[in-house]
């Protein structure tokens, strides 16, 4: 059986992206970053094969594609507070006109243009695929 070990995001500024995702999720560097690679783990992850997905940031020089083909869904107890906090860390709101009237998510992008949704946990079941 497979498990999700690491999700790799391409970035241009590894220090800025690392600071954003460490602040957003409370993750820590697995090792000291190189100039073009860092893996971020949940703080209690014992080793790379332990449960809990990691995030790797990779400087590749490839341009971002919009809309991206993959994104994170981050679940929030207090969606408004989390969106405000993430915006304070450098996230940007995505101008997206496809929200349904009953949307329980808000689309943001990190400092490098990688998109993610902040999903309101109190509105479970309204998101496509739930």
UniProtKB/TrEMBL annotation:
Q: Which Gene3D superfamilies match?
A: 2,3-Dihydroxybiphenyl 1,2-Dioxygenase, domain 1
| SUPFAM superfamilies in UniProt | Glyoxalase/Bleomycin resistance protein/Dihydroxybiphenyl dioxygenase
What residue stretches are annotated with the VOC domain? 3-121
- Identify this protein by name: VOC family protein
């Amino acid at each position: 059986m497979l498990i999700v070990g690491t999700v790799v995001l391409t970035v241009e500024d590894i220090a800025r992206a690392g600071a954003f995702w460490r602040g957003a999720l409370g993750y820590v560097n697995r090792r000291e970053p190189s100039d073009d690679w860092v893996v971020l783990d949940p703080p209690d992850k014992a080793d790379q094969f332990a449960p809990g997905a990691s995030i790797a940031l990779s400087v590749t020089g490839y341009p971002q594609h919009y809309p991206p083909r993959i994104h994170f869904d981050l679940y929030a107890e207090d969606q408004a507070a989390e969106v405000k906090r993430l915006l304070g860390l450098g996230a940007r709101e995505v101008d997206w006109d496809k929200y349904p009237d009953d949307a329980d998510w808000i689309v943001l992008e990190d400092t490098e243009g990688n998109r993610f949704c902040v999903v309101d946990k109190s509105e479970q079941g309204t998101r496509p695929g739930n």
